[in-house]
């Protein structure tokens, strides 16, 4: 019980992830298009993803038009190569957020990237579901997702080149195709619900977790 209270609290208020100067310089070289972007790194997954298979996720800030939060399930201290590769993968998504923001307006979780991401996943999932189980359909929809293919490929190239990264060019993401209209609308609807619900849930968690967290820290 005590450990779950601490995990949940730190999932709502995760610790910032500190990079060395060398790591920052490396990432700036690989992602020059993000030089002026508002990106915050955290060293734990958000509270609603605790216990999931994910090792990282790029999510929009709940009260911003442009800020992106990268949550990394950091496995070692100092930062390991696997953690650095996860950051590279999530920065690819941050660049996709920025690219799609040029095309459509958005705020909080209600951003173009979320509509595209959920929309493509929904379209592929329902195309596969009649022939496969829901679990296999979801796994394949994720593996073949148009916004995941390039980040996974770039992450693999990063690991293959490391530490000799001079031959690795900066990440480039062409403008992705929009998902089918019906799936895009469902994706936007889901993003809108998240944009509305997440701040409320986190406010309720704050009211309950804040006193409990400081209580368990005393004993």
Can you walk me through this structure?
The protein has helices at 2-12, 21-30, 81-101, 112-128, 134-143, 146-161, 181-218; strands at residues 39-42, 56-60, 68-72. It has a three-stranded mixed β-sheet with strand order 1-3-2, with helices on one face. It has 219 residues and is mostly helical. The longest helix is centred in the C-terminal third of the chain and has 38 residues, at 181-218. The chain is built from seven helices and three strands, in the order ααβββααααα.
> Helix-strand pattern, N to C?
HHEEEHHHHH
What is the β-strand count? 3
Number of helices: 7
Q: How are the strands ordered across the major sheet?
A: 1-3-2
What spatial form do the alpha-carbon principal axes imply?
globular
Task: Report the portion of residues in β strands.
Answer: 5-15%
Uncertain stretches of 5 or more adjacent residues:
none
Distance between the termini: 13 Å
Content-based structural category: mainly alpha
């Amino acid at each position: 019980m005590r450990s779950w209270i601490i995990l949940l609290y730190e999932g709502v208020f995760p610790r910032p992830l500190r990079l060395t100067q060398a790591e920052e310089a490396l990432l700036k070289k690989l992602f020059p298009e993000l030089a002026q972007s508002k990106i915050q790194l955290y060293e734990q997954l958000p509270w609603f993803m605790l216990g999931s298979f994910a090792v990282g996720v790029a999510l929009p800030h709940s009260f911003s038009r442009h800020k992106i939060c990268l949550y990394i399930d950091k496995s070692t201290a100092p930062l390991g190569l696997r953690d650095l590769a996860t950051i590279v993968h999530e920065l690819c998504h941050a660049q996709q957020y920025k690219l799609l923001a040029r095309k459509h307006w958005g705020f909080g979780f209600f951003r173009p990237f979320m509509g595209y991401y959920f929309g493509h996943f929904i379209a592929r999932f329902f195309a596969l579901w009649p022939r496969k189980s829901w679990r296999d359909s979801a796994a394949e929809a994720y593996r073949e997702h148009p916004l995941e293919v390039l980040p996974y490929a770039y992450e693999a190239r990063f690991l293959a080149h490391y530490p000799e990264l001079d031959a690795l060019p900066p990440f480039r993401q062409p403008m992705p195709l929009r998902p089918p209209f019906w799936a895009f609308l469902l994706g936007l609807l889901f993003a809108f619900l998240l944009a509305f619900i997440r701040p409320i849930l986190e406010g309720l968690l704050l009211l309950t977790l804040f006193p409990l967290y400081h209580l368990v820290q005393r004993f």
